[in-house]
Specification:
The protein is an alpha+beta fold and 375 residues long. It has two domains: 6-157 and 337-367, Aminopeptidase (3-Layer(aba) Sandwich); 173-302, Aminopeptidase. The protein has eleven helices and 16 strands. The protein has a nine-stranded mixed sheet, with helices on both faces. Helix 9 (285-299) links the parallel strand 13 and strand 14 (304-306). Helix 6 (184-196) crosses helix 9. The protein is globular and about 60 Å long.
């Protein structure tokens, strides 16, 4: 097969970029992630990264796009540049003749930017459904891509930034049919919360400081590390003010008991942040909260609701098992992606980085401070 004549371009216009991404997303299985939006890049620019929007053409037609974030790492006395494409590149991963030259071009671009590593985290599918069940649907294209990356010197990253697996709910049916598709216990818990008087409302910008307090309380209870208050307030306020997302709050007698923050982009609503209190848990507020979030996604005309995260291993040994038992009641489709892969551009520095970084992360986790593992 002759090699494609492909050309790389940097996009400088917000409207051109988001139009391009949404056009490409419309040709794919379930759209594109908000992490590839222009706005996400602008937000990350305020927090130590530099965003670049790259796109590829074949015969004057746009065929691929990728927002890449660059950052200079200053850990351990080293000053190294990381290039990271969250949920990118965006292209048809079943088309090897396109995917291979795009990855090579992106790697060359990162080298020119003097990055010591390029990390990509594409929504290239290894399979659908829970492994070793009747629902499992392996995807030959994803497994072939994984083999190709290994052959080209890429490594499955020891530092997975986003969740590798998730669950996507198809919204292209009416609300009545959708709720009937949930497990019986999930439907019961939604109705129970309604009978108990749990109320769900849209959060306002003035609610965000208190929302962070609830998030910090959740993190401390459940043992995960989060970023600073200022970071989350910036992210959430940006979402609310731009219309690219909402926050929903569940209340009992005027007391906040749970909340979610959602993003909306390219036909997909994503449940990116969740928080709750132990109080009134028996009233099942999180079930009603998720149902209201799904209703919001349908009202916005979106085709997919992304539950943002499923176990790496689908058994009780996985740290996400408890959360997964809650999510699976909504009976979406499990999607299993390649996860993040690293191209070591400067192998010596990459080797040192992969040996030293786990020590830093362990120290940060032990202190209960530092960056979240997500976004």
């Amino acid at each position: 097969m002759p090699e494609l004549s492909i050309s790389l371009h940097e996009i400088q216009s917000a409207s051109q970029w988001d139009t391009l991404v949404q056009t490409l997303a419309g040709k794919l299985f379930a759209g594109a992630s908000y992490l590839q939006s222009w706005q996400w890049g602008e937000l990350k620019n305020r927090w130590g990264w530099q965003a670049y929007r790259l796109a590829w053409q074949v015969d004057s037609c746009w065929v691929a796009a990728c927002q890449v974030l660059l950052r200079d790492e200053g850990k351990f006395g080293l000053h190294l540049r990381v290039a990271y494409a969250p949920r990118g590149p965006l292209l048809d991963w079943q088309n090897d003749a396109l995917a291979h030259p795009v990855l090579a071009s992106l790697r060359q671009w990162a080298k020119q930017k003097r990055a010591f590593v390029l990390k990509v985290d594409p929504e290239a599918m290894l399979g659908f459904g829970v492994p070793a069940t009747a629902d499992e649907q392996p995807q030959a294209s994803g497994n072939a891509l994984q083999t190709y990356l290994s052959q080209q010197g890429w490594h499955y990253s020891p530092f997975q930034i986003q969740f590798r697996n998730s669950m996507w709910l198809n919204l292209q049916t009416d609300a009545g049919s959708l709720i009937q598709s949930f497990k019986q216990k999930t439907r019961y818990n939604i109705r129970l919360a309604e009978r108990k008087g749990v109320l769900v409302r849209l959060a306002q910008p003035t609610d965000l400081p208190q929302l962070f307090d609830l998030y910090a309380e959740t993190a401390q209870r459940d043992g995960f590390v989060i970023r600073s208050r200022a970071y989350y307030l910036d992210v959430w306020q940006t979402l609310l003010e731009s219309g690219y997302g909402v926050a929903l709050l569940a209340e009992v007698d005027g007391q906040w008991v749970a909340g979610v923050v959602l993003t909306r982009y390219a036909g997909r609503v994503t449940y990116m942040y969740g928080m709750s209190r132990v109080q009134f848990r028996e009233w099942m507020p999180t079930y009603l909260l998720q149902w209201r979030a799904i209703e919001y996604a349908q009202q916005m005309g979106c085709h997919t609701y992304d539950f943002w995260g499923a176990p790496e291993v689908f058994d009780e040994s996985d740290s996400m098992w408890g959360v997964w038992r809650f999510k699976e009641g909504f009976r979406g489709q499990v999607v299993r992606t390649l996860g993040a892969w690293d191209a070591p551009i400067q192998p010596v520095f990459y080797s040192a980085y992969t040996q030293l970084m786990p020590r830093l992360l362990a120290w940060m986790k032990g202190r209960g401070a530092g960056q979240s593992a997500r976004h």
